[in-house]
């Protein structure tokens, strides 16, 4: 990479509109992902459907995984501004249905629509960076979009809890409708400079079916209380992901860029390390529960402990995106994540009885989680930028000497960042559920299994970071 742009360039008039749109759409989807869990008890108490308590999240994420895999085809068929407006409209329609739902069946329809629109918004967040910003700003643009997930981790659960506590849970969806309308108002001007349409390729039906099936199995596995059911679901999902990759290698109607399967390509390592970072971040969903049951923290204190990783993620993104030597940061980030999770795991095994329920344990956990979040933020923007430009580095994509690379392949490389992110989130949730189940009814044993499992995953990611770092363009 020849050089890096500055934050001032990113905020310049010609770029700030696009960044406001792309980061705003991603933030809406991310907040919606985390806010629903905190307001579901209030929603179920009013509209019923307790037997389907977990379905709103499952339906939402399943739809989002599938549509995020179709972003490259959507952008090849519809101009960027129009595609973004349609995604906003579908998402807002789903939120409106949720806001006025009188039954669980209607509520699920709204969640399905939100997932369809939200998956497109999140996928286009990364996919449109390459056509909205110069290459020198890709890392900073990726950092801003990724930071929205960290912000949502901090804001979403708290906002949902406040609205639910005030008996106004429906306004959580009403606010999302208002936000969608505000973003839609600036889309035409913000995305007017995007490139013209390109010819769409064949519809990736087989790939979408594999991805959808894996996401569905993972969603069910993450809800299972029995470790055998959760483990079987996790294993089945991993088999489906392997079959998806095998299908992708052989088909011309693919979701991933062809460069992913080129011998010597760094893209598989980049996607893989990205998946590890996001998958381990799934720990955050279980931290408040562990804080209350093991450390004896009050719900408010456990909630603050739960956002420690997200806060570290945001801080790491802001600092790392401005730094030089991205390869070193891609190596450092997973190492910090591994160190942070190991600290928490070791603390749980060393501290027992009264010590484990004391404040010292919580302080060490908070330090480990913040360090882990900083590790994710340190590596993520550089991995995302490398993935966005990964297809450009494949010599097989040039139609002639000096010709531009296949733009559809570049779109696939960008959109795949979100597909990988969502699948990794599903894997992390399912893995966390299975790990907790291994501890049975003993809260401390469950917490030990949870953090030990994720610590092993994080350590493996740190050890495998070097091949991914080789695919990250370095700069002086």
From TrEMBL:
Membrane association type: Multi-pass membrane protein
Record keywords, A-Z: Membrane, Transmembrane, Transmembrane helix
Ranges of residues in domain Major facilitator superfamily (MFS) profile: 18-470
Database matches in InterPro entries: MFS (IPR011701), MFS_dom (IPR020846), MFS_trans_sf (IPR036259)
Major subcellular site: membrane
Subcellular location, record wording: Cell membrane
Domain of life: Bacteria
Name this polypeptide is given: MFS transporter
Organism for this UniProt entry: Actinomycetospora chibensis
